[in-house]
């Protein structure tokens, strides 16, 4: 089988991998690329025959037919093979050829069924020669396993409707049999399970987290302007009371001034090269074609806006951090899709040789604190600030301004010594409670809690306090924000739906400042433990 030499970038790369000097296909290197098409663990026996899945994880293409399919060395007749797309379209293999190809865009799954074949449990070798435009003839060789499903424990699920009352009841029975647990409270819920598809799998009930109201908090922002009752979902005694105390102090001082200073959500693919010089030349080529890269990325969304590509080169690797504005959505999935489209174009057109590519090189850094987030922003970069008069400290917070500022200076050294992600007292506390109440992705507290707190003693013994959150990841649209309970909490803040994300970001930053002010004052006044004894569940 001879592969003609192509002209454009990714084809040159595949050609270099596939074809040796004699023009004969080499199966050693292309397997690393082509194996990404096969979905491991998909090989299974069905009533219609043996089935496995292939999914396009590489680049938009067209499937032009099968030249050879062997399972365990036995050739399969094309007339025995059926193809079903993830959209439910079904084709006989003999219906698909180079003149009548099957569209195979990125993200599409095709289920391949071989009729009247049943395989025993264990490993099985699958070899496929196929035609894919624009690549030509390709070969794929994989080994997959059929497991004895009866020996693999699994939670009951209904493939037809996994959110039906029957499916939920079956899982309740499963829990009762397996754990001897009566889920009296978990199973009580007011939401329609059918509304939860896309937010939860194998639904059994709800976690009833207590929710309290703090505040209200007066916010003087560019988007949030008013007094807002703050819903906080938590099981920690004193938390709502502490945040309310901080909010009252801010209100007595005229409110909190909040400013969104930057907005970007990131995805950071990594490209692997033979050497550092090629990585540098690749980076320069991408920047030379920035306008087209941006166009390809933004074609995937009506909202995503590429604002910058950061470059970080190390060894023979090029990390490119794509930064987007994402409207009212947090945007992690949105920017993943947009970046993938941009990278597909880059790989198609770059004239050099790319050894490997991964959509995420762990540099974004998603749901992890990092210095690059602190410096370059992930989500919203927000500052909340206020000037607290001396009388508010003494009469409301019970703290001495000079003592509070000195404690902050000492705590800064403690944070540095510990290698903490914040010099604040507890930014994660209020954010986690607010996130759970309003349907945010709670794992993003990992980045969002990395706050920078500052307190400056002024000449009149008042204190200017401020907090900057460089990676505040919030949304008012999409994800869990549209679920009934969470949407009600956002309605309390007048932040539900599109057009409100910056308002919500300003409020969230004000919540963090209130918590820092309250706890710092309690520690400075040696009142921290006594408050927990009075309001919490200390033992």
TrEMBL record:
Keywords: NADP, Oxidoreductase
Molecular function in Gene Ontology: hydroxymethylglutaryl-CoA reductase (NADPH) activity
Catalytic activity: (R)-mevalonate + 2 NADP(+) + CoA = (3S)-3-hydroxy-3-methylglutaryl-CoA + 2 NADPH + 2 H(+)
Residue stretches making up the Hydroxymethylglutaryl-CoA reductase-like domain: 33-147
InterPro entries xrefs: HMG-CoA (IPR057868), HMG_CoA_Rdtase (IPR002202), HMG_CoA_Rdtase_cat_sf (IPR023074), HMG_CoA_Rdtase_eu_arc (IPR004554), HMG_CoA_Rdtase_NAD(P)-bd_sf (IPR009023), HMG_CoA_Rdtase_sub-bd_dom_sf (IPR009029)
Top-level EC class as recorded in UniProt: oxidoreductase
CDD domains: HMG-CoA_reductase_classI
Enzyme Commission number(s) of this protein: 1.1.1.34
Gene Ontology annotations of biological process type: coenzyme A metabolic process; isoprenoid biosynthetic process
Top-level taxon: Archaea
Entry similarity comment: Belongs to the HMG-CoA reductase family.
Identification of the protein by name: hydroxymethylglutaryl-CoA reductase (NADPH)
């Amino acid at each position: 089988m001879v592969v003609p030499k192509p002209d454009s970038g990714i084809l040159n790369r595949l050609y270099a991998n596939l074809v040796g000097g004699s023009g004969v296909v080499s199966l050693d290197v292309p397997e690393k690329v082509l194996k990404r098409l096969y979905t491991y663990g998909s090989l299974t026996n069905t009533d219609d025959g043996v089935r496995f899945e292939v999914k396009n994880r590489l680049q938009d293409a067209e499937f032009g037919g099968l030249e050879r399919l062997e399972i365990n060395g036995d050739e399969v007749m094309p007339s025995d093979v059926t193809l079903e797309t993830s959209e439910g379209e079904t084709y006989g293999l003999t219906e698909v050829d180079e003149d009548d190809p099957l569209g195979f865009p990125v993200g599409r799954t095709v289920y391949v069924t071989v009729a009247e074949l049943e395989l025993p449990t264990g490993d099985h070798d699958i070899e496929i020669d196929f035609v894919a435009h624009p690549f030509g003839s390709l070969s794929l060789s994989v080994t997959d396993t059929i497991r004895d499903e009866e020996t693999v424990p699994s939670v009951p699920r209904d493939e037809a409707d996994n959110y039906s009352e029957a499916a939920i009841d079956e899982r309740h029975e499963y829990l009762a049999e397996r754990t001897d647990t009566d889920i009296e409270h978990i199973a009580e819920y007011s939401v329609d399970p059918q509304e939860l598809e896309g937010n939860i799998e194998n639904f059994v009930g709800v976690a009833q987290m207590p929710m309290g109201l703090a505040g209200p908090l007066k916010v003087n922002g560019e988007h949030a302007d008013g007094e807002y009752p703050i819903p906080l979902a938590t099981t920690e005694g004193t938390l709502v009371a502490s945040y309310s105390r901080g909010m009252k102090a801010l209100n007595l001082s005229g409110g909190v001034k909040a400013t969104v200073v930057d907005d970007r959500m990131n995805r950071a693919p990594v490209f692997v090269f033979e050497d550092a010089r090629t990585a540098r030349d690749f980076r320069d080529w991408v920047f030379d074609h920035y306008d087209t890269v941006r166009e390809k990325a933004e074609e995937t969304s009506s909202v995503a806006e590429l604002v910058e590509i950061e470059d970080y080169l190390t060894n023979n690797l090029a990390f490119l951090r794509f930064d987007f504005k994402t409207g009212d959505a947090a945007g992690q999935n949105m920017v993943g899709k947009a970046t993938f489209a941009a990278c597909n174009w880059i790989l198609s057109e770059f004239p050099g040789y790319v050894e490997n590519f991964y959509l995420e090189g762990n540099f974004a850094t998603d749901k992890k604190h990092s210095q690059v987030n602190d410096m370059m922003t992930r989500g919203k970069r927000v500052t909340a600030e206020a000037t607290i008069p001396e009388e508010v400290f003494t009469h409301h917070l019970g703290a001495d301004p000079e003592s509070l500022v000195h404690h902050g200076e000492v705590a800064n050294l403690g944070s540095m010594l510990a290698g903490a992600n914040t010099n604040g007292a507890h930014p994660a506390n209020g954010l986690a409670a607010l996130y759970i109440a309003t349907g945010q992705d709670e794992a993003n507290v990992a980045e969002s809690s990395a706050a920078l707190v500052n307190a400056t003693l002024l000449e009149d013994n008042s204190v200017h306090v401020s907090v900057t959150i460089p990676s505040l990841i919030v949304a008012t649209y999409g994800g869990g924000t549209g679920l009934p309970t969470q949407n009600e909490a956002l309605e309390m803040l007048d932040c539900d739906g599109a057009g409100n994300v910056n308002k919500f970001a300003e409020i969230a930053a004000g919540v963090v400042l209130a918590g820092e002010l309250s706890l710092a004052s309690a520690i400075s006044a040696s009142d921290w433990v006594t408050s927990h004894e009075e309001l919490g569940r200390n033992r």
